[in-house]
């Protein structure tokens, strides 16, 4: 999305939001997920767009591990 001046909108539509070859933005998928899974998908989806791919993949792992712990706690009745 461009602002009226024609520049990228860094708040609502930074350029890395729609840079996936499919043209799909991560939010189109993640809005249907729970928080942790949605964030993991978001970080995986855009991991190579902001210059810190390893950091973003580690963030995805953090959210996946958090969700796994939530399921384990739920299963154990905590």
Helical content class: 40-55%
Proportion of strand residues? under 5%
For the residues shown, what is the average pLDDT?
Answer: 85
Biggest sheet overview? none
H/I helix tally:
3
Number of strands: 0
Shape: elongated
User: What oligomeric arrangement do these chains adopt?
Assistant: single chain
- Rounded radius of gyration (Å): 15 Å
Question: In whole angstroms, how far apart are the ends?
Answer: 45 Å
Task: Briefly note the structural class of the backbone.
Answer: mainly alpha
As residue ranges, the low-confidence spans are 1-6
**What string gives the helices and strands in order?**
HHH
Describe, in short, the structure shown.
With 78 residues, this protein is mainly α.
Commentary on this structure:
This protein is mostly helical and 78 residues long. Helices cover 51% and strands 0% of the residues. The chain is built from three helices and no strands. The radius of gyration is 15 Å and the shape is elongated.
Sum up the structure in keywords:
disordered N terminus, 78 residues
What's the SSE blueprint?
Elements: H1 26-30, H2 35-45, H3 53-76
């Amino acid at each position: 999305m461009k602002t009226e001046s024609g520049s990228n909108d860094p708040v609502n539509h930074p350029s890395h939001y729609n840079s996936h070859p499919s043209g799909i933005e991560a939010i189109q998928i993640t809005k249907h997920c729970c928080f942790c899974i949605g964030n993991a998908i978001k970080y995986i989806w855009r991991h190579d767009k902001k210059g810190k791919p390893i950091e973003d993949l580690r963030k995805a792992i953090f959210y996946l591990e958090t969700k796994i712990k939530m399921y384990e706690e739920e299963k154990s009745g905590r």
